[in-house]
Amino acid sequence: MILDTIAAISTAVGEGGIAVIRVSGVEAVPAVERMFRSKSKLGEVESHTVHYGRIVDPQTGEAIEEVLVTVMRGPRSFTAEDVVEISTHGGFISVKQVLDLVLRQPGLRAAEPGEFTRRAFLNGRIDLTQAEAVMDLIRAKSDRASAIALKQVDGRLARMIQGLRGELIELLAHIEVNIDYPEHDVEAMTADYIRTQCGKVISRVDELLRTANEGKILREGITTAIVGRPNVGKSSLLNALAQDNRAIVTDIPGTTRDVIEEYVTVGGIPLKLLDTAGIRETLDTVEQIGVARSRAAIVDADLILFVLSAGNALHEDERELLAQLRSRQCIVILNKSDLPRRLELEQVLEQMPEPQLVQMSVLQEQGLEQLGDAIRTIFFAGELESADLTYVSNARHIALLKQAKAAAADAIDAADAGIPIDLIQIDVRTAWERLGEINGENAGDSLIDQIFSQFCLGK
Ligand code: GDP
Ligand code: ZN
């Protein structure tokens, strides 16, 4: 299949430094060669080499930019096609000029969002889980999240899914052969084989699903509210967290929300902080902001960091809030523990019998590590799974894994009930198909369109 040649700016637009224009397809090398003045002849250079030169408008002879051009010939390239990348160091205008010039070449057109990755998929270089991982990688909000995505790009999940499909295909072949032998003992043997193979699939799918929740947390961050009365140290805590981690502010592309979310990591776990504007509020001596605003944030949070000051007796508002938070995932932070203790712990315990309690002094930079431990205890039963685990964190994968598991369980039930194997075959086939949809071996065009349309331009 020969596809037309596509081009787009592949780096984030508007940021200084270097911008890269990526061109992919059979016309990539000849098109760029036409506008490239250099000692190197792009048509003849070795693959994976970089060349210095000038981009010149071939019609007017006008010089536009000094650039570095990288040539990567297919199939050893990201898209498995010939790829040329033009690195420019200029601002947006000159990058745009170079791109316009490239797009004016015969046989070229602008790439759609995700189209480079889609080509890699269409050309068989990556499967769907890997393509989705590329997207996750672009959006990853913590080191760990990107480690998960990297593994997926690397094809780990793909190989596991392939392995499971292999088991099921063997089983399907076996059933096929034996359908024509209605003797009872053959039938019984096949039913046994169905039980073992489907049992294997179920237990491995279960293992994958167990990682799903943790994968989701690591990928999306724990939605967290920092609450407490004015002056207990919320802003200080936020600053300490942000400083440690270089707060990442993102607006997630493709969603209509215009809320800006802020991410920090604590002990490697990403937190998505709610209402940081409220916490940064400098006028929070005003009572109503403190508590009313806290209440709103609490509703949406998966984790609440309730900050108290050790230097003050428990306030009525705090007592009330503690009682409300009893049944929630809450960590009580006893801040300002460098000050003489005025707060009586018994009063806290009256409202919340078994709190996750962390003593802290933001001022003296103490307690952040314990805070990380407390979060791990709540969300990961104390331990983060080893980085070696393959995490499933994509909602689409999770849904399909569950469907595959249900079909495999149906097959086992049917075998137990003595249902004829040609009928059981349908369930086995369903399990095999659902797994195939995960890595795209069995995915329809509309699904593929939908997945790639979520990408940003130039990827
Ligand atoms: P917020 O109103 O809850 O956001 O509290 P701030 O973060 O604005 O802090 C209020 C005051 O408490 C500031 O003067 C901080 O410097 C001080 N503060 C914050 N953390 C500590 C701490 O651990 N120990 C002491 N002694 N003071 C602190
Ligand atoms: Zn504050």
TrEMBL record:
Transmembrane segments: none annotated. Exhibits a very high intrinsic GTPase hydrolysis rate. Involved in the addition of a carboxymethylaminomethyl (cmnm) group at the wobble position (U34) of certain tRNAs, forming tRNA-cmnm(5)s(2)U34. InterPro entries: G_TrmE, GTP-bd, GTP-bd_TrmE_N, GTPase_MnmE, MnmE_dom2, MnmE_helical, P-loop_NTPase, Small_GTP-bd. Mg(2+) binds at S235, T256. GTP binds at residues 231-236, 250-256, 275-278. Residues 221-380 form the TrmE-type G domain. (6S)-5-formyl-5,6,7,8-tetrahydrofolate binds at R22, E85, R125, K459. K(+) binds at N231, T250, I252, T255. This is tRNA modification GTPase MnmE. It is found in: Cytoplasm. Its EC number is 3.6.-.-. GO terms for cellular component: cytosol. The keyword Hydrolase applies. GO terms for biological process: tRNA methylation; tRNA wobble uridine modification. Pfam families: MMR_HSR1 (PF01926), MnmE_helical (PF12631), TrmE_N (PF10396). Homodimer. Heterotetramer of two MnmE and two MnmG subunits. Keywords: Cytoplasm, GTP-binding, Hydrolase, Magnesium, Metal-binding, Nucleotide-binding, Potassium, tRNA processing. One of its GO terms (molecular function) is GTP binding. Its cofactor is K(+). Its main location: cytoplasm. Belongs to the TRAFAC class TrmE-Era-EngA-EngB-Septin-like GTPase superfamily. TrmE GTPase family. Binds 1 potassium ion per subunit.
